[in-house]
Amino acid sequence: MIRVLSIIAASLTLAACAGQPYEPLPVSPYQWQQRQERIERTEAERLRRCGTLDKTSERYARECPRTGDPA
Q: Is the pTM of this model over 0.90?
């Protein structure tokens, strides 16, 4: 019985971890630069998209929080 409960607990723990993709940290300056550029591109795309959305829509409220607003 204890073995079954242990297996169930382990599977639940692994299932909770499976939702988060693993992204290793960059190890070289080039990889850090590429990561930073990707972050900047993603943020610029988000800001462009927020500029085209209706400010009263639910999507705008969800995707375009202002700086300092709680998430």
A: no
